[in-house]
């Protein structure tokens, strides 16, 4: 997730919001890898 510095340095009031951003970034990384395989 080092390519997503905005997420790493972002301050969220609620943990759920931060977790959602991390999940979104992980999903985007996974999709990029999945698309390159197929």
Task: Explain what the structure shows.
It is elongated and about 40 Å long. It has one domain. The protein is an all-alpha fold. It starts with a helix and ends with a helix. The chain has 2 helices and no strands.
Strand portion, in percent?
Answer: under 5%
Multimeric state: single chain
| Main sheet summary | none
Overall geometry comes to elongated
- The total count of strands amounts to 0
SSE pattern: HH
Radius of gyration: 12 Å
Domains, number: 1
Kindly list the characteristics that best describe this protein.
single chain; about 40 residues; mainly alpha; elongated; Transposase DDE domain-containing protein
Summarize the structure.
The protein is an all-alpha fold and 38 residues long. Helices cover 71% and strands 0% of the residues. The radius of gyration is 12 Å and the shape is elongated.
């Amino acid at each position: 997730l080092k390519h997503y510095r905005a997420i790493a340095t972002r301050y969220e009031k609620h943990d759920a919001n931060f977790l959602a951003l991390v999940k979104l970034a992980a999903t985007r990384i996974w999709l990029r890898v999945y698309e390159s395989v197929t």
